[in-house]
Structures are given as structure tokens and as C-alpha cells.
Amino acid sequence: MIYISSHWFPVKTRAFLIGMANSIAMLGASAGGGPLTMIIHQIGWRTTIGLFGIFGVLLGILVYFIFRSDRHNEEVERETAHIKSHLFESLKQVASQKNSWINALAALFFYMTTTGFAGLWGLSFVQTAYGVSKEIAGYAMSMVFLGWLVGGPLMGLLSDRMGKRTTAIRIGILGALVCLIPVIYSPGISIYVVYGLLFLVGFFSSAELLNFSLAIELNSMKAKATAAAFTNFIISCGDAVVQPFIGFLLDRNWGGSFEQGVRVYATSDYQIALSCLPLTLLIAFLLLFFMKKAPSHKEV
Predict the structure, then answer these.
(1) Least CB-packed of 69, 147, 166, 237 within 10 Å?
(2) What are the DSSP E strand ranges found in the chain?
(3) Within 13 Å, how many C-alpha atoms sit on residue 263's CB side?
């Protein structure tokens, strides 16, 4: 997605197109909460996953033929055919830059709110803290991804207009932080207010996509795919850590209660464990100040 948005289209529209493509992808994530729960209740989880598998195969075949018949792709391959580089040359180039690491780590800490809260622990927290059903809590998590869906192209457009990626990313981090804090620490507010706040958390969090645009612009164009992949790899490492880490914090503060053989956590237990998420947002915000001046995307 990122490679195509940066490879086939003008530089000035890069962040907007990456945001738009991600918004389309977030339709699936948004439907993975409440709507998916309803479908599973109707036809069962086995049939649901089987249908997803069939659709995925058909989509893969379609993508294959679209790429195969694309003339622009053939032109690019002819233009770059003379470049003979070692397999790890681009990776070495990207990894040797301090800015690449800072940008990737900032993206990692920025994304932890989405993967740690909306991706796993937020659903059970909202159920417990706000006293709602699993289905309603599922819709609350869907609001985060709906926010990503709407915010992706808009934050990208803002960044393209400003010409300053890091400033737009900082705005996104602060916005997500301000909206997340009352959800975690003010469980007395209305669930409808929670819906709105979580939508804004997702909206502002979509600025994390700009880290991929920034990764491309911090490196040579020959290494742009590697730069995007490197950033995504670092983010994925964080995904593998934050969810079990929040679980670890929950277990440390667990009061010993069981319900039908399953551990039951109090609202305060969740609040302590989820406190790591505002902290990661603050770390992401501060990391960007250690980055050497990044080039304006208009200059690339």
C-alpha cells in the first residue's frame, strides 16, 4: 500500500493517498468489533472465518492480475533494471540512519494505543468500567478504527498542506492523548461520550501513518520500500510486546477474584495496567524532538 502510494503517484499527494488506502483497510477493522459479533451470532464463527478465507483467496487472485497487467510497473522495472545492489544494501542504508530509528520507535509507541487498547484490552475494560455488554463494548472498539478510517486521509491532507510531517504527527499524538485519558480515568462518563472520545482517539492516531511517509523521505528513493518495511517491522515488534505487557500488569494487581473459573479484574486494575498507554504516547511525542531536521516532503 505504502510502496504503491509513493511509487505510482505524485509526491505531493503521498500522505493523503496512504491515509485513503488505510481508511479502506480500516473498514475491516471497524467491522471487527460489534458487527462481527452479530455475524458470528447469526451464522457461527467457523462459517464466518471460512467465508473470510474464500474472499481472501479471490482478492489475492484479483490483485495478482491487476499488478501483472500494470504498464507503469513494467516501466519502473525497466528504469531500475540497471541498478544492481546487494540484498542488504538498502537495509544497511536505512538502519544506519539515526532518524530512521527515531521515526520507527516513535511510530511504535504511537501505535501501541491502537493495538493495546482497541486491539485487545479495551473491550474488557469498557465492559467492566462502564457496566455494558460485550456487544456494546465491541462497538466502542469499532469507533477507534472508524476514527482511523476518517482520520487517515484528513491527517494526510493536513500534512501535505503543511509540508511538515513531524508537526502533524505531534498534533496527532497530543490529540490521542487528550482523548484517551478521560476514557481510562473517568469511568463515570456516558458510554456515548466514550464512543465519541474513542472515535477521536482513532482519528488522531491515524497520524501514525505519516511516520511511513516520513520514513520514505528520510532515505533515498531507491530504499523507500525498505524504509517502509523497516518501520513496519519495528512497529510489529511493539505489537508483540504491549498486549502481553498489559496482561502482566493486570496479573500483578489482580485481587484474586474468579467468575466461572476466569480471573476477574477490577476497574482500578485496568486503570493501572492501561496507564502505560498514555506513557507510550508521551514517549512518542518526546522522541520526535531528538530527530534531526527532516526534509520537507516538497523538497524530496
Answers:
(1) 69
(2) 258-259, 262-263
(3) 13
- Quickly count: other Cβ atoms within 10 Å of residue 83's Cβ: 8
Which H or E element spans position 244? helix 224-253
Condensed to tens digits (0 to 9), the pLDDT of residues 67-93 reads 777 665 555 555 555 454 556 888 888
Amino acid at 14: R
β-strand partners of 147: none
Q: Which triple of cell numbers denotes residue 235?
A: 512497529
Give the tens place of pLDDT for each residue, 243-297: 999 999 999 988 888 877 778 899 999 999 999 999 999 999 999 999 876 554 4
DSSP-based three-state secondary structure for 286: helix
| Residue of 111, 137, 112, 113 whose CA lies nearest to 125 | 137
Contacts of 32 (CB under 8 A, 6+ apart): 142, 145
Alpha carbons 52 and 75: distance in angstroms, whole number: 34
d(CA 264, CA 220): 51
Q: What 3-state DSSP class applies to 62?
A: helix
Q: Look at residue 25 and give its three-state secondary structure.
A: helix
Longest CA span, the chain: 66
Residue 217's alpha-carbon distances to 29, 56, 101, 223, in angstroms, are 28, 32, 14, 10
Q: Could you tell me the three cell numbers for 108? A: 511504535
